[in-house]
Design goal:
heterodimer, A: 3 helices, B: mainly beta, seven-stranded antiparallel beta sheet
Chain lengths: 433, 274
């Protein structure tokens, strides 16, 4: 059908009349009827019927020469036809319904009677008729649900605005050197607005950005205007900062006669503007250690490698470890005392090595972070590493430093190389804004 | 970043930092990925070397004639990295291997104790690391300690650091600062759990600790004789959190704070002025 439309569509623009905010186009794809219809308008005379008489088109491709930057707010179709009986008629534009009417008037016949004008108007669309592309070919359609309609031609009237302000917002980023507050990272997005009249950029247009979320409670979105009147390039810029995740619609208060086109953006995922230092950590694995053993150390029963528990590379340093028997041991903080050394340490067994968040340490999942930069439970994507979750912290992990939990023992870091890289925040933090 | 852009950035930054040259001859070291650059008194930047991996922690020796730095870590082998000591303008280079058996996975800090010894703080866990003193001539480890925020005093006679705490300790277990194995902070009668976020010495031998307790951050000048704080400077909440992470030198004579944390994006690895 589409191919047929391309091949057979007739761009018969009988007449185009343009006023300040409307343009009317007469289209006539309906030909081949056995007699002429005196409906008026150029190209009149031939027709086609929905029952198959003549060359019936349910879709008619046309061009209306609107400025490409125009916003078509309303479409009205006036169908000149001879209904031979009552007909339910639906008009569409690019498949989107304009409206439906039940045409009960009939005037079936040739030559002797005038056409009936069936008017079908869309609702108002402040942001533009859905899917309509001004200045490009679009497809008008007629669907006849019941009855028979013999169409001679159609007049389409477009109500549009050519004076508009187009708003764009850059992909959000996380502000350089900013701290999270209440587990909420600080996003920012550069805003731009272009004032146009038709396809021409307009200087001197007042533009003040607004957020749809301000005034609805919570911390406000902060918008800093870098300028408030469009320059010679028709542009105004600004900067939006927010700690509120979720959808946000940026609009603008603009000079009289102009319409601001809203821009919707989502503040969840965002790249950090700072690079991070990536290092790795492990927990001790008893099989990594050689040397002597110790029997029934404080808190444990059995024989264990001495260095595994007490050396500077063992549980004394790492805080936890896995024994040759597969059990996890950690420091018994209630029974151990400072300074933490062989003499003062007691151990206990645990189901899993835990983190500052209370979650189990998981290879390929857990990372230790500075929660002022990456709030606890945040999901992040680390360059060359993949997705990880902020489960852990440590006094020595500060600012833009991520310590990736690699797993058990030295083998877990055998393929690791420290690096400085980029991080993308993916959400997941328990932001209370 | 495009190579040319990076180079230009380095040159620009070098030129900016070299600005004090007008008031005295300063030299600064910069790392730009695998390249090490130096600025001279005229503000010109010269590339000293290019490594295969990133250059980090470049520091002038006390006599300013040599430079020590660390190569980027590669944990795949028995030798994961090197401390390199080089003399600009000569072929003299010493490479000290950092072996896997040490258990560190990165170097967080490096300095010179004197002309014969350098020190490093190695990364092990999110909570704690290792201090090593290295003999430059032999490459041998002379001393090893556990802890964090290691800070040898300017005269090399004292070593301040946050006491080692195994990873996973409960938050109620506060931090303590030791100097030569003696607890100097917090004071004996202060039972609140402190979090130490950095330790530094002033040129005149004052020890400053970036401290957080009860949600309040401050820079504390430690009374080394009695222990505890002799002066506490509360960090303002208007965005100075980063400052608390990097201790500020407090000049007790003038009561002026010298904020060392202002160059947050790129700062010289080392800067010396005549």
């Amino acid at each position: 059908m589409t191919k047929r439309l391309f091949l057979l569509s007739l761009l018969l623009l009988a007449a185009v009349s343009i006023s300040a905010e409307t343009v009317t186009v007469s289209i006539d794809c309906w030909q081949g009827g056995h007699c002429a219809m005196p409906c008026g308008g150029s190209g009149q005379g031939n027709y086609a019927c929905s029952d198959g008489s003549g060359q019936w088109f349910s879709g008619c491709r046309y061009d209306e020469n609107l400025p490409t930057a125009a916003i078509v707010k309303k479409i009205t179709a006036k169908i000149f036809s001879h209904p031979c009986n009552s007909a339910v008629v639906t008009a569409t534009m690019n498949g989107q319904t304009i409206g439906t009417v039940n045409e009960t008037r009939t005037s079936c016949g040739c030559l002797s009677t005038s056409c009936i004008e069936t008017v079908i108007a869309s609702q108002e669309y402040p942001d533009g008729f859905p899917g309509y592309i001004p200045g490009e070919p679009n497809v008008f359609g007629i669907n006849v649900g019941s009855g028979t309609l013999c169409v001679e031609h159609v007049e389409l009237t477009f109500e549009y605005t050519g004076k508009q302000v187009l708003i764009t917002a850059d992909e959000p980023t996380i502000v350089q050197n900013s701290n999270a507050v209440n587990n909420c990272v600080q996003y920012e997005s550069d805003l731009s607005a272009y004032a146009t009249d038709g396809n021409t950029r307009q200087a001197g247009v007042s533009v003040r950005f607004t957020s749809n979320r301000n005034g609805s409670g919570g911390n406000p979105d902060t918008i800093t205007q870098r300028s408030t009147v469009t320059n010679n390039a028709g542009e105004v810029t600004g900067l939006l900062r927010t700690r509120r995740p979720g959808d946000l619609t940026v609009s603008a208060e603009v000079s009289d006669g102009y319409t601001a086109e809203q821009h919707r953006t989502n503040f969840t995922e965002a790249d950090y503007e700072n690079q991070f230092r990536m290092t790795a950590y492990i927990i001790a694995l008893e099989s990594d250690f050689g040397g002597g053993t110790v029997t029934d150390p404080c808190g444990l029963t059995g024989t264990f490698n001495d260095d595994f528990l007490y050396s500077n590379r063992g549980v004394l340093m790492q805080g936890s470890g896995q024994t040759n028997g597969g059990a996890y041991v950690t420091i018994d903080w209630n029974r151990s005392r400072r300074p933490f050394n062989r003499r003062n340490l007691c151990f206990t067994t645990i189901n899993c090595p835990t983190t500052a968040s209370g979650q189990c340490l998981q290879p390929n999942v857990s990372i230790a972070v500075d929660t002022e930069k990456i709030p606890m439970f945040s999901n992040v994507n680390i360059q060359n590493v993949g997705n990880r979750t902020a489960h852990d912290t440590g006094d020595r992990i500060q600012n833009y430093h991520i310590d990736v939990f690699a797993g058990l023992g030295r083998a877990a870091v055998a393929n690791w190389g420290n690096f400085n890289g980029t991080v993308r925040y993916l959400g997941g933090a328990r932001c209370t804004n | 970043m495009h190579k040319l852009t990076r180079t230009c950035t380095v040159l620009l930054l070098a030129a900016i930092v070299a600005a004090p040259a007008a008031h005295g001859a300063c030299r600064a070291l910069f790392a730009d990925g695998p390249e090490l650059w130096i600025t001279n008194a005229d503000g010109d930047a010269t590339r000293l070397l290019r490594e295969e991996r990133d250059v980090a922690m470049a520091r002038f020796s006390p006599d300013r004639e040599r430079i020590a730095y660390v190569r980027g870590f590669d944990l795949t082998g028995e030798v994961m990295s090197h401390i390199v000591v080089m003399r600009p303008g000569s072929e003299e280079t010493v490479e000290i291997p950092i072996r896997a058996e040490l258990g560190i996975t990165d170097v967080m800090n490096l300095g010179w104790l004197d002309e014969k010894r350098v020190w490093t703080e190695g990364h092990v866990t999110p909570s704690s690391g290792m201090y090593h003193e290295w003999d430059v001539a032999t490459g041998k480890v002379l001393t090893e300690r556990l802890g964090a925020w290691f800070a040898p005093s300017p005269d090399g006679a004292s070593l301040a650091y946050r006491e080692h705490v195994p990873h996973g300790a409960p938050a109620s277990l506060g931090d303590r600062v030791l100097v030569n194995e003696r607890v100097v902070f917090p004071a004996d009668d202060d039972t609140r759990p402190h979090r130490v976020r950095g330790i530094t010495w002033s040129g005149s031998g004052q020890l400053t600790v970036a401290d957080e307790v009860g949600g309040e951050r401050s820079n504390v000048v430690v009374d080394l004789r009695r222990g505890g704080a002799s002066r506490r400077v509360t960090v303002q909440s208007n965005g100075s959190a980063a400052a608390a992470r990097k201790p500020m030198y407090v000049d007790l004579a003038t009561h002026r704070l010298i904020d060392e944390a202002s160059a947050t994006t790129v700062e010289p690895l080392d800067l010396i002025c005549d």
